[in-house]
Design a protein that fits this description.
mainly alpha; 85% helix; 218 residues
C-alpha cells in the first residue's frame, strides 16, 4: 500500500471507530439489560403477576380481559404470520416445480421469508423467478409464473392470513395491516409479530378506559 492509501485508511478508521465502538457498547448494554430483566421476570413470575394484579387500578373483570385478549393476540400473531408464510411458500413451491425452476429449496425458503413482509410479500420471490424465465427467453413460463404468483400465491396471503388471525384472536384485518407497518418501523423484523399486538392492545385499553370511567347513559 502507498503512503497515501495508508493515510486515507487511517483517517477512515479514526472517523468511524468511535461510532463503531459506541454502537457496539449500546448493543451489548441493551442485550445485557434485556437478559437481566428477563431473568427476574422468569424467576419471579408469580410475584410479578400478583404485584401487578394488586396494584393496577382496574376492575378485576378488566384485568382478566387484558390477560385473555393478550394471550389470544400473541398466539394468533406468533402462529398466524409464520403459518401463512409457510403455506405461501408451499403453494409457490409447486409452481416453481411445475415450471422447472432451478434451486427449488432456495426459492422455497426465500418465498417463506418474503411472504412475511407487508405489501410486497411473496412477490419478492416469484417476480424474480419470472424475470429469470424472461431472461432465458422462456416467455411462456415467465407469464405463467406471474399469473400463478399474483393470482394464486398472493390470494393465499389475502385470504388465509386474515381468516386465521380472525379465527384465532378475533383480530380485524386492518389491525394486522397497520400493526405490521408500525411494527416494522419501530422494532424491525420482529415488529411483524409485536406491531399488531400493540395496536390491538391500544384499542383494548381504550375500551377498558371507557368501561372504567365513563358514566352510564340515561
Amino acid at each position: 500500500m502507498s503512503d497515501e492509501n495508508i493515510r486515507t485508511f487511517s483517517k477512515f478508521i479514526a472517523e468511524k471507530l468511535p461510532n463503531i465502538l459506541g454502537a457496539t457498547f449500546n448493543s451489548l448494554t441493551t442485550i445485557f439489560m434485556m437478559y437481566f430483566i428477563l431473568y427476574f421476570m422468569l424467576t419471579s413470575t408469580r410475584d410479578l403477576e400478583y404485584w401487578l394484579y394488586r396494584n393496577i387500578p382496574l376492575k378485576d373483570e378488566n384485568l382478566h380481559l387484558i390477560g385473555s385478549e393478550l394471550r389470544k393476540l400473541v398466539v394468533s400473531n406468533a402462529l398466524g404470520i409464520p403459518l401463512t408464510a409457510i403455506l405461501q411458500g408451499i403453494v409457490a413451491f409447486f409452481g416453481y416445480w411445475f415450471l422447472g425452476t432451478d434451486d427449488l429449496g432456495f426459492w422455497f425458503v426465500f418465498t417463506c421469508i418474503a411472504a412475511m413482509i407487508p405489501f410486497v410479500g411473496a412477490a419478492l420471490a416469484y417476480v424474480p423467478v419470472a424475470i429469470l424465465f424472461f431472461a432465458e427467453g422462456n416467455n411462456t413460463n415467465g407469464i405463467i409464473m406471474l399469473i400463478y404468483g399474483f393470482g394464486v400465491v398472493g390470494s393465499v396471503d389475502n385470504i388465509f392470513r386474515f381468516a386465521l388471525q380472525k379465527k384465532m384472536g378475533d383480530v380485524h384485518p386492518l389491525i394486522t395491516v397497520f400493526g405490521v407497518i408500525a411494527g416494522l418501523n419501530l422494532f424491525g423484523f420482529i415488529g411483524l409479530i409485536f406491531g399488531p399486538i400493540l395496536i390491538a392492545m391500544f384499542i383494548l385499553l381504550i375500551r377498558i378506559y371507557i368501561n372504567e370511567f365513563s358514566e352510564p347513559k340515561p
